[in-house]
Design brief:
With 265 residues, the protein is α/β, with parallel strands linked by helices. The protein has 9 helices and 7 strands, in the order βαβαβαβαβαβαααβα. The radius of gyration is 18 Å and the shape is globular.
């Protein structure tokens, strides 16, 4: 059993996945920006699984040089991972013309390019070690265009496309690539997201339900081990993933109806 590497591993879906993999006996390498939260996560994980080795790296995944260095250090210490989950991400909704260009660029740098660096750096060592499983945490917002997600959703659309391609390209090296499309999940990121979410966006997304991070993590890990290309928690995400092109006109009509009602107030 080889190690598991997880970005965004100090909270939310990333930490929930770390806890489940620790229980299975995997050594862990966790990557996140906040050193204090990483240490708290490490302590909680060692309480649950005292015999495993846990390496932590306080690093911004958007800093390609520093992040690559951290990944290579973890690989040197723990070996190439068997499971690698890219869960680090940001989400700051807002209207396209009101959000600065650098915020759009920051979403791409963290959500897409950070995941790209993760997969690109680890694919070679994982292949040399005999293969493994890579998981990307996308979003339901990667399945159709949603008002108010002009900065966030395109980064997840890009991530989805990368996952689709790598699922095909890395299979020959016995590396499976799985993308999970979670609905709203009860995490610190969602709480932060609510701070800037336009009222129209809140109404559009109100009926999507709320998942717990441990349930999303469980479905992701099972899907990775089963070598599925996509994991869609819940009926709504499954329907959107399978029938998105057919549902798109209806979803656009629904959103335009809500937008018009707000403008007429």
């Amino acid at each position: 059993m080889r190690a598991a590497f997880i970005t965004g591993g100090s909270s939310g879906i990333g930490f929930a996945a770390a806890l489940q993999l620790a229980a299975k006996g995997h050594d862990l390498a966790l990557f996140a920006r906040d050193a204090a939260k990483l240490l708290d996560a490490r302590a909680a994980l060692l309480d649950a699984a005292p015999s495993i080795d846990i390496q932590t790296y306080a690093v911004d995944v958007a800093n390609t040089e520093a992040f690559t260095e951290a990944l290579l250090d973890a690989t040197q210490k723990l070996g190439a991972p068997e499971i690698a989950i890219a869960s680090a991400g940001i989400a700051q909704p807002g209207l396209f013309t009101e959000q600065p260009l650098d915020l759009h660029q920051r979403h791409m740098a963290v959500n897409y390019l950070g995941t790209l660096t993760f997969a690109h750096t680890l694919a070679g060592p994982m292949a040399a070690a005999g293969g493994g499983h890579i998981g990307f945490v996308a979003s339901g917002a990667a399945l159709f265009g949603i008002y108010g997600y002009g900065a966030y959703a395109p980064s997840k659309f890009a991530l989805s496309g990368l996952g689709e391609i790598l699922h095909l390209e890395l299979a020959a090296q016995d590396i499976s690539v799985t993308v999970v499309y979670p609905p709203d999940t009860d995490t610190p990121q969602l709480a932060e997201e609510e701070r800037t979410k336009p009222e129209i966006t809140k109404e559009i997304t109100a009926d999507g339900g709320l998942w717990q991070p441990e349930d999303v993590a469980n479905k992701l890990i099972k899907g990775m081990l089963a070598r599925h290309a996509a994991v869609t928690p819940g009926f709504q995400m499954t329907a959107l993933h399978r029938f998105g092109s057919l549902l798109a006109p209806l979803l656009r009509w629904h959103q335009k109806r809500i937008i018009a009602r707000y403008k007429n107030r």
